[in-house]
# Entry
Amino acid sequence: MKRAKDYIIFPLDVQSAGDAKHYIGLLSNHVGMFKVGLELFIRYGPQVIKMIREMSEAGIFLDLKLHDIPATVRRAMESITGLGVNITTVHCGETPEMLKAAVAGSAGKTAVLGVTVLTSVSVSDIKKAGFENQYYSDISKLVLKRAETAKDAGCAGVVCSGLEAKMIKNSFGKDFLAVTPGIRPAWSVGEKDDQQRVTTPASAIKNGSDYLVIGRPIRDAKDPVSAAVMTADEIESALSVY
Ligand code: C5P
# Structure
């Protein structure tokens, strides 16, 4: 049975193994998964995966957002799968062949998620990047188009904003995962940051999100454990309603 805390993915967006260790120790019993991104993986490589496994029973999400020619992506995915992580990512703004290669490389052992449109991207970013009017007037159309490519290629789900999770579930069914970063609880104290398409934990759950990536609101809180517990409580209340 999935508990409220299992919905929380905490990104280890820190610069040192010591800091990563600190947060793993603090949060192991309060989150479902730790996410390792480029920042930590480039510095420490597979050692950091080993460290998490030794310290915690939480799942591991290796978020490397692959984007390259299909042959390279396939081989990179084989290496990722060899690390025994639960979830990993590939960008879905490229060809279906690249996504199919990622899925083939994972051999059904690691869930591959397609990154649709980063939650830090706004309408004006899409416009400046030269996309057609239909996409910058409504980013969700671009998210949907990319999610469809991911679904057709056999991905387990997508990374999208909590605002878009409902549309993803309605279009591709409840088993197609919606993993949502850009979570900003009403109580979070940080300044406005780079995230644009944000939502609260409760509304992400209401929209059908399967996992909530929540970093800075927990990491930068005075008491990260209480922040994680408050998030899980909010998730629990939302789950009991929806
Ligand atoms: O909660 P916070 O904004 O700190 O979380 C940021 C994390 O979410 C980063 O690790 C970032 O890579 C990840 N992420 C994102 N948008 C995506 C995919 C992942 O912000 N579309």
Summary: Residues 11, 13, 35, 37, 63, 115, 118-120, 159, 181-183, 195, 213-216 surround cytidine-5'-monophosphate (CB under 6 Å). Residues 144 and 167 are 8 Å apart (CA to CA).
